[in-house]
## 1
Amino acid sequence: MGWLANWRRKRVLEKHRIDDALWLHATKGLSFITNLFPPEEEKLKRLVILFLAEKQFSGAHAIEVTDAMRVSIAAQACLPILELGLDWYSGWTGIVLYPGDFRVRRSELDEDGVLHEWDDELAGEAMPGGPIVLSWDAAANDPEINVVIHEFAHKLDMLSGAPNGVPPLHAGMDRRAWLGALNEAFEGFCDALERGKDTWLDPYAAEHPAEFFAVISEAFFQEPKETRRRYPDLYDQLKLFYRQDPASRV
Ligand SMILES: [Zn+2]
């Protein structure tokens, strides 16, 4: 990041603050945010101010995007980058909110050259190089998933190319250790799912290692102790990558 961007961010922080009542309202019910240690919470608020200054929210299907919605999404989006910095979300600006799940048209050419088209119903999508699209209903009301952390985790994963469950690892991290922990957890999960066992995590995680990374990132922040108990090796790797130990806050 250049000095100009640095200067702009400093100015933004000097000029803006988040109203306490708005912050409380926007983070109400988000225990993984209200659990933060006070210095972490202050740091998160500063990141949220910068996030709101640099990202652009828009509503689709006539949804009115309120300040509380913006702050709630920004707070959840900034939690994973609390110790990484906002530059990890650079290269795109848009966040599009739909009132509920939205439909996207998919098409795929099969090996016989036949074009298949179908509709997907989604609660969220992270477009490579483009916006993040979210269902506000899913973000606000679905306790089973955290669509915000999920989609922003995909953005981190995409920084190293096509999403594959391996975001850019920090110097000193061991790629083999990451892959070992991720693959062991992913394969064990798929295996348990196939045998009809209770999998705890959203079954959608079995789709692809990239989905598993996004889903385990939700769990890492929302249910850190259970994540650490079930997936100790992967928890350690996530702790190194996110530079946070959410289980210590609970
Ligand atoms: Zn996903």
Note: The radius of gyration is 18 Å.
## 2
Amino acid sequence: MQTNFTEAQLADPDTAASEKILRACVHCGFCTATCPTYVLLGDELDSPRGRIYLIKDMLENNRPATEKVVKHVDRCLSCLSCMTTCPSGVNYMHLVDHARQHIEKTYRRPWPDRAMRRLLGLVLPRPMLFRLALQGAVLGRPFASVLPKQLRTLLNLAPARVPKPSPADRAQVFPAQGERTRRVALLTGCAQRVLAPHINEASIRLLTRHGVEVVVAEGAGCCGALTHHMGQEGDYARRNIAAWIDEMTKPGGLDAIVINTSGCGTTVKDYGFMFRNDPILAEPAAKISTIARDISELMSEIGLHPPVEPTGQRIAYHSACSLQHGQQVRTQPKQLLQQAGFDVADIPEGHLCCGSAGTYNLLQPEIATRLRDRKIENIAKTGAILVAAGNIGCITQIASGCDLPVVHTVELLDWATGGPKPRAIEGRT
Ligand code: SF4
Ligand code: SF4
């Protein structure tokens, strides 16, 4: 695609990066067929190609974002399905991230929207605040019908009971069982540890059982994805980089940063790009990104122990967009589940997002619900009795409308190799 940025514009490193991305696009439109919003809405401006044109026009002319641009960029899930499909290697993720920052700087949203985004950016990354908000949501549920639409969505997605905090999430070291083969830092994250603390517990059991020493680093927390994708600034990534670099200097160092929430994994793997122009953090951030691994990638490298539990259940494996498109991790989780003895079914239209997409299901509830219902219809076609996924956002989103239990992949791997039965299927045959 031809671009017309001035020299002065290209002096800005973000604009220079976006210009390179725009030039790679040959407007072939292959990406439209796999874009969930285009599939649902059929509007070219809700396709990757349409959004690329809107973003190009906005950045090239250095215009403040318009209502039209904001509408169509906001509707983008950042599912990155378009990046998997694109034959020209267009890095849509970096382009839309830049567009979102430009929107936040130049566009004043209506106040309810502003308030909601501020609230989400403030609460979700802070486990204590998020837990309090969920407890409030449990009490507020009877009044849901009189609340504004977006708050209603929040209440509907809140669990019926808020789990207690897990001691596993505190900074500490979990020694490997048997001979130590690796030392890794586990990202215990923010929203996941509040909604489903048993996922980190299962991850720690699984890793230590396989000879891995697991460190929960002091000072590490939210990866920064939730605020980053809303175009907001925050120092979450900086704190994580500092915490993990400090761990690297300790005896044994770090062989990997392990992430069990794939939405966070995509962001941590992108720290190198995010800080590429930071004179202090560029090098450590790149180092962190290089050793970041989804837990399924690491377990694949290590090799799963033979199952000790007679499994064999038919499972629908939902491949989170952040894992299949953001990190190109497709085969490892399925292979691990098969090695653990499960009968793994592919979900039809598996490339389409379930509508979770970070805060998307809270900010765009209509589209998110349509995508969720479509996903659940496709899951039903597999004949599975439970659903596995590697991302808490997808787990919460699918579970909010699905009769089948929805569990994290690591809970099943942990169970099969000697851990407890996942809570969601306790008491079921
Ligand atoms: S598939 Fe790639 S090159 Fe083709 S229009 Fe989409 S982004 Fe551009
Ligand atoms: S990230 Fe997903 S929703 Fe956004 S343009 Fe690409 S395919 Fe469409």
Note: The longest helix spans residues 365-380.
